[in-house]
Amino acid sequence: MKILVAIKQVPDTESRIKVAADGCSLDPADVKWIISPYDEYALEEAIRIKEGKGAEVVALTVGGEAARDVLKNALALGADSAVLLKGDGQGDAYAVAQMIAAYAKDKGFDLFLCGNKGLGGDNAAMGPMLAELLNVAQANVVVKLELGDGTFRAEREVEGGSEVVEGALPAVITAQKGLNEPRYASLKGIMAAKKKTIEEADAAPTTAGSCVTTLALPPERAAGRRLEGEAPAQAAALLQALKDEAKVF
Amino acid sequence: MILVFCELKEGTIRKPSAEALSEGRRLADAAGLKLGAIFAGASCAGSADAAKYGADVIYCAEGASLASYSSDGFAQVLADTVQAKGATVLLAAATAVGKDVAPRAAARLGAGYASDVTGLAMVGGKLQAVRPVYAGKAFATTSFASAVQVATTRPNVFPLAEKAGAGAAEAVAAPAGGFKSVVKEILAKASGKVDLSEANIIVSGGRGMKDGANFGLLEALADAIGGVVGASRAAVDAGWGLPHSMQVGQTGKVVSPTLYIACGISGAIQHIAGMSGSKFIVAINKDPEAPIFKLADYGIVGDLFEVVPELTKSAQGMGIGSN
């Protein structure tokens, strides 16, 4: 079994977002970059499959030199090899899906794993687009995955519950929190990763789908007011305000 | 034409789909286009209601192959209909199904895709979308390079607008089947309560709840005012047995209810990112310096274990939950 794990480098969730001078992109100053948390579940799942039934795990990201960090981490966690596709990995999901599809087709991958969305861009689009471009099955927002002989069974989160998707491999599976508990890299893993190389390739040219023309911060919320008094008075004042001022009820 | 993929639940159009249709009508009027609704399933009974929200044509792909949801099967129906009818815009609600099928259909059409949008406009005959990024810490205006443009609309954001359309029914062919993946079984049926992403009122608890069992207090309040219960990441990760599906925040659900009541939630950036789109925010916290108060329209500095039961009692007395 051959598994491709697509990972994305994203701003840390504690980052304050500032708009760059171009008015349409993120100001990278002061941003701490991390692996998108959902991709950690994807990577962990790939490593568990490798440990369970044996598999070759290839980690891939699209980006510049700085994106090597997430690949080094993937190698330390247990990926066998890593690929840096040099291109814009932060932009249009359709373009990124085309880059990964162009790289992956004809390489004999049985399974493609990635996060259900890249934190920040929040498109939740790359996985299903990759599945379509490669003409393979998909299951998104997956919290449990079982592999059979050329088949998969996935539980995915839907409104108010979950549903079971069954299909044939190859498939694109996008991971959700709950799929597993990602491990930390061991010292042994970190040392072993130093001996592994990161393959580098230019991303294939793509057709643009969409682009961000303006990035803006949300308007500040108007100052609210404190409701004073003891608990019963506060409760009564709140319900009155929600009824009369906010007209929520 | 603007084509809107609509989902049915027990023979009725789902509310997020009706919202997408309402927005589709508005865009179609602005651009002088027709509005089509597309349904797919073993039966499309109930699809005629799309006319209430302005559909000029109602396309139905009915067939045994579509009895269970299939990502590639439904994407094929949508893409084929877009092409056959010459639609330039494809919309769906950003539901579990919509978010699964729309990007796949977009890739099939060679189209750009904007997910979970909160604003749409037609500019020079093309769709332009505004969508929250970094879980609402910023908003991105997105334009399209492709001939066809695809977007999913965030539930609870676009107002329902009833405006009668011609609603001419037209059958479209269902694929033969043999899909790559199919939904086999629904594991946990919805409890009857709406999902957080569609809820109008959310009562949420954080680390200040001290224990998972105390969430019963929030359930009681939610029941009294017609809401559902959510939780912060701190609460979900605390090992209190709360499921991740309850989590509101950047790594959980991003919500936009009319009312969000934050109980014992300090207001970490990652939580605020998930709920700052709420219309009204109430914060109940014993720490007057908690960052959540900066966002709150109404702040109560106090012990949630006293305030929340008082709220429940008073709300029951006022009969709020009954409307």
Descriptive overview:
The complex is a heterodimer of chains A (249) and B (323). The longest helix of chain A is centred in the first third of the chain and has 17 residues, at 37-53. Chain A is of the alpha/beta class. Chain A is built from six helices and 13 strands. Helices cover 25% and strands 28% of the residues of chain B. In chain B, the strands form four sheets. A seven-stranded parallel beta sheet of chain B has the order 7-11-6-1-4-5-12, with helices on both faces. Chain B has a five-stranded parallel beta sheet with strand order 15-14-16-17-18. The mean pLDDT of chain B is 95. The chains are: A alpha/beta (249), B alpha/beta (323). Chains A and B meet through helix 3, helix 4, strand 7, strand 8 and strand 9 of A and helix 2, helix 3, strand 7, strand 9 and strand 10 of B.
Summarize this structure as a short list of keywords or feature phrases.
heterodimer, A: 249 residues, alpha/beta, Rossmann fold, 2 domains, 9-stranded mixed β-sheet, two-stranded antiparallel ribbon, B: 323 residues, 7-stranded parallel β-sheet, 5-stranded parallel β-sheet, elongated
Helicity of chain A, as a percent range: 25-40%
CATH architectural label of the largest domain in chain B = 3-Layer(aba) Sandwich
Tell me the radius of gyration of chain A: 22 Å
Low-confidence stretches of chain B: none
Broad CATH class of the largest domain in chain A: Alpha Beta
Shape of chain B: elongated
Named CATH architecture of the largest domain in chain A: 3-Layer(aba) Sandwich
Mean pLDDT of chain B: 95
Q: Alpha-carbon distance between the termini of chain B?
A: 38 Å
CATH fold assignment of the largest domain in chain B: Rossmann fold
Q: Which regions of chain A have little confidence, pLDDT < 50, spanning 5+ residues? A: none
Number of distinct helices of chain B? 7
Going by helix content, strand content and strand pairing, the class of chain A is: alpha/beta
